[in-house]
């Protein structure tokens, strides 16, 4: 990239502060709606750029990567997860791919713990009762939830977000188990118990929370995995919907293998499986783990930081 302001395509709507910076510091094309893959390709044909800032709506498989114009140097992904693109194919073409780690760790862990508490304490059902006017008394055996304090929490993926989840769980006196590709150093474990094999850990998990990175492929939680959990367990997912066999999850929720689930992600978004909406024991959000003013600002700014760094010849801050 040269010394003049780099030409960039901002292919998704940003926060006001980030939009102002994109206009000020770059020769930027700013969009009024989040572009999809076809719209990005069309925009690149009309106006060649050196970098594109994208989100998950722009799905870049190997064929799409091959069709990108030669002048493009950088794909700045404004989130941590990048499973919507073939990063390996992009790198093979000589493209730089970046993401935004660190900045959404706390907000994602906050929402994951909100989902955990809401699922355990039947928050969806309690709120529905209140919205309808209450007007009915409940006795001691009625509408009972599960006490999260003191439970055993299994964390799948003990990266930054998984460790932040563990930190919150310790405040509730939870025993922490975790499965990860490799064992953490003792100072990062902080007493958490490591399981090299996921299926060996599952029978001990009264609550299970997924925190795998966005590049992870394949279905992790299938019927056998849900059956391995203790009966009445609680399941939380703020990682990726693709990690879960949703038919198996619905079966486990419907027939009592799971007490409840807290879900922020689904296999198909935003057109998620409406069977979940009919289940009273599902507490869910529309993929909002990073949706705070502070974090969305930080995500957009970090993506722009990566573009600026490459434009200045310093190399990417967060290469994928």
Automatic annotation (TrEMBL):
<protein>
    <submittedName>
        <fullName>D-glycerate dehydrogenase</fullName>
    </submittedName>
</protein>
<dbReference type="InterPro" id="IPR050223">
    <property type="entry name" value="D-isomer_2-hydroxyacid_DH"/>
</dbReference>
<dbReference type="InterPro" id="IPR029753">
    <property type="entry name" value="D-isomer_DH_CS"/>
</dbReference>
<dbReference type="InterPro" id="IPR036291">
    <property type="entry name" value="NAD(P)-bd_dom_sf"/>
</dbReference>
<dbReference type="InterPro" id="IPR006140">
    <property type="entry name" value="D-isomer_DH_NAD-bd"/>
</dbReference>
<dbReference type="InterPro" id="IPR006139">
    <property type="entry name" value="D-isomer_2_OHA_DH_cat_dom"/>
</dbReference>
<comment type="similarity">
    <text>Belongs to the D-isomer specific 2-hydroxyacid dehydrogenase family.</text>
</comment>
<feature type="domain" description="D-isomer specific 2-hydroxyacid dehydrogenase NAD-binding">
    <location>
        <begin position="114"/>
        <end position="289"/>
    </location>
</feature>
<feature type="domain" description="D-isomer specific 2-hydroxyacid dehydrogenase catalytic">
    <location>
        <begin position="8"/>
        <end position="320"/>
    </location>
</feature>
<keyword id="KW-0560">Oxidoreductase</keyword>
<keyword id="KW-0520">NAD</keyword>
<dbReference type="InterPro" id="IPR029752">
    <property type="entry name" value="D-isomer_DH_CS1"/>
</dbReference>
<dbReference type="Pfam" id="PF02826">
    <property type="entry name" value="2-Hacid_dh_C"/>
</dbReference>
<dbReference type="Pfam" id="PF00389">
    <property type="entry name" value="2-Hacid_dh"/>
</dbReference>
């Amino acid at each position: 990239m040269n010394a003049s302001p780099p030409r960039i395509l901002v292919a998704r709507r940003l926060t006001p502060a980030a939009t102002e910076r994109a206009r000020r510091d770059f020769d930027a094309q700013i969009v009024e709606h989040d572009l999809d893959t076809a719209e990005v390709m069309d925009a690149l044909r009309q106006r060649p750029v050196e970098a594109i800032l994208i989100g998950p709506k722009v799905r870049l498989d190997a064929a799409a990567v091959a069709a990108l114009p030669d002048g493009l140097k950088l794909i700045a992904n404004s989130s941590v997860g990048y499973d919507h693109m073939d990063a390996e194919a992009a790198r093979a073409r000589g493209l730089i791919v970046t993401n935004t780690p660190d900045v959404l760790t706390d907000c994602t862990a906050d929402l994951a713990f909100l989902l955990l508490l809401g699922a355990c304490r039947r928050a969806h059902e309690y709120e529905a009762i209140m919205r309808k006017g209450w007007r009915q008394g409940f006795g001691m055996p009625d509408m009972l939830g599960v006490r999260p304090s003191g439970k055993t929490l299994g964390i799948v993926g003990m990266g930054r977000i998984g460790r932040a989840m563990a930190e919150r769980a310790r405040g509730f006196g939870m025993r922490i188990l975790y499965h990860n590709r490799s064992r953490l150093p003792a100072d990062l474990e902080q007493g958490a118990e490591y399981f090299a094999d996921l299926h060996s850990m599952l029978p001990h998990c009264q609550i299970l929370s997924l925190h795998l990175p966005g590049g992870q492929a394949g279905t992790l939680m299938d019927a056998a995995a849900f059956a391995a959990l203790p009966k009445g367990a609680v399941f939380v997912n703020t990682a990726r919907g693709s990690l879960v066999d949703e038919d198996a999850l619905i079966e486990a929720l419907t027939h009592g293998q799971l007490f409840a689930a807290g879900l922020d992600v689904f296999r198909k978004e935003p057109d998620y499986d409406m069977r979940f909406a009919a289940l009273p024991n599902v507490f869910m959000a529309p993929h909002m783990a990073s949706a705070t003013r502070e974090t969305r600002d930080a995500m957009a700014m970090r993506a722009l930081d990566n573009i600026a760094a490459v434009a200045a010849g310093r190399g990417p801050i967060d290469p994928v």
